[in-house]
């Protein structure tokens, strides 16, 4: 496996057999132009020319590439385009096979999230469709193309832990409406609509008669700071119970702050103003947990 930068390109140019192949010669010429541009843009150190790179589709007609970041690369990987090509040697990608007949295990030092984006040049792909649309007997014009696909799942897998470390949460829901005892589905929906119309992001468990524990768990999963609990007797008096919930970091992990507070009674018709005036609501508008 050869990787490197301009020095690797010089090594390939010196191979007479390789340069005798028109296709290989054209590819090396294209890489020469690419390295010239990379040097001009001062990003040559961000590129590694890897001759083992391959894409799984056959419509590429020129350069192919994959993008990685430090967090997505295998721990043993060091991408440096200015390095001299390392001599080829066997790479232990698997652990020794066990005597009990079990399957070989991958060497985890060679495994990472992988590329977060990939693509290449495909001059003839679009031409296949334009040719089909062209009138019979007419040659479709060439249409050079180059593209890239981005792996959002892989990017999120890298970004999410950093987001959590900053004390941020995944959703902006501020209020979770629950019911104690009877399901009070219509009452919950009515309150949710009022809060949403007032600009307060609100959610609830869309079941007819959910258990109170299940409702609390759903709200805690999204780290919602306000739990508004409806009860039949309280509603008759025009009241609701509001319980503020907080989270903290313990040994690097998010943990809900345990409290014996059972919440406080708030008049239902004053709930919107009460929530908006709390320091919790105003401080959490940024989405920060703590």
Strand content: 15-25%
Average residue-wise pLDDT: 80
Number of helical elements: 10
Tell me the structural class. alpha+beta
Rounded to the nearest angstrom, the distance between the terminal CA atoms is: 49 Å
| Helix content, binned percent | 25-40%
Biggest sheet, open or closed, and with what strands and sense?
A: 5 strands, mixed
Query: Which outline best applies?
Result: elongated
- Which segments are poorly predicted (pLDDT under 50) over 5 or more consecutive residues? 78-96, 100-111
Numbering strands along the chain, what is their spatial order in the largest sheet?
A: 7-6-8-9-12
For the secondary structure, the number of strands is 12
Order of helices and strands: EHHHEEEHEHEHEHEHEEEEHH
Please state the CA-atom Rg, rounded to the nearest Å: 30 Å
Write the layout of secondary structure elements.
Layout: E1 3-4, H1 6-13, H2 16-19, H3 22-40, E2 49-50, E3 64-67, E4 117-121, H4 125-133, E5 146-150, H5 152-165, E6 175-179, H6 185-197, E7 202-204, H7 212-221, E8 226-230, H8 232-236, E9 239-244, E10 247-250, E11 253-256, E12 264-267, H9 271-277, H10 279-283
Parallel strand pairs: 6-7, 6-8
Antiparallel strand pairs: 1-2, 3-4, 4-5, 8-9, 9-12, 10-11
Helix pairs in contact: 1-3
Write up what this structure looks like.
There is one protein chain. The protein contains 10 helices and 12 strands. Helix 1 runs antiparallel to helix 3. By secondary structure, it is of the alpha+beta class. A 5-stranded mixed beta sheet has the order 7-6-8-9-12, with helices on both faces. 32% of the residues lie in helices and 17% in strands. About 11% of the residues have low confidence. The radius of gyration is 30 Å and the shape is elongated. 11% of the residues are buried.
